[in-house]
Specification:
The protein has 175 residues and is mainly alpha-helical. Helix content is 46%, strand content 8%. The longest helix has 19 residues, at 128-146. The chain starts with 12 loop residues before the first strand and ends in an 11-residue tail after the last helix.
Length: 175
């Protein structure tokens, strides 16, 4: 498929936009993509995009457009809110605390939340009590193996498997 813009080169980038259930597709080559990228950056820089997303921050003046940010600097790295607006990058982890009120709206718009909750694989949830019981049983299992009480160890191993709902032996359960 040839580039929709120049028609000379093979399209290597395929963009699809859906607006009001209307699908628009654009197939472009790397040369045109680079040219368009440069044009877009000169017209719409990342800092402008981020500044537009932040509620109440219409200016790139070091936070003067945001109440409470005038002259505020991060205690750890010395970055200002204006530095963030200009570069689109936070200086350090402490900046999140320093500029929390202003970053909160931006993070919610970009990520859907202003709190990082992490990702974990889906597993069967166990209570704190069950977790403590499993830890105690695993410690007991190690002691029984070290003292060569293998029959008791096998019973404890089976109890651990039962609590974990596992059919197979994991590495730390092996006797």
């Amino acid at each position: 498929m040839k580039c929709d813009i120049c028609g000379k080169f093979d399209a290597t980038i395929h963009l699809t936009e859906v607006v009001n259930e209307q699908v628009t597709k654009l197939h472009i080559c790397e040369v045109c993509a680079k040219q368009k990228s440069d044009e877009m950056q000169s017209h719409f820089g990342l800092a402008d995009l981020l500044a537009g997303l932040v509620e109440g921050a219409e200016s790139l003046d070091g936070g003067a457009g945001v109440p409470g940010l005038v002259g505020r600097k991060c205690a750890r790295c010395g970055s200002t809110y204006g530095d963030f607006q200009a570069s689109g990058r936070i200086g350090c982890g402490k900046c999140y605390e320093t500029f929390a009120k202003s970053l909160s709206g931006l993070l919610r718009k970009i990520h859907g939340s202003d709190r990082h909750v992490g990702k974990m694989p889906f597993t069967k949830e166990i209570s704190v009590e069950q977790r403590e019981t499993l830890k105690r049983l695993k410690d007991e299992l190690k002691q029984l193996v070290m003292s060569e009480e293998f029959e008791k160890a096998a019973l404890v191993r089976d109890r651990i498997r039962e609590l974990e709902g596992a059919d197979t032996v994991t590495k730390d359960q092996e006797i």
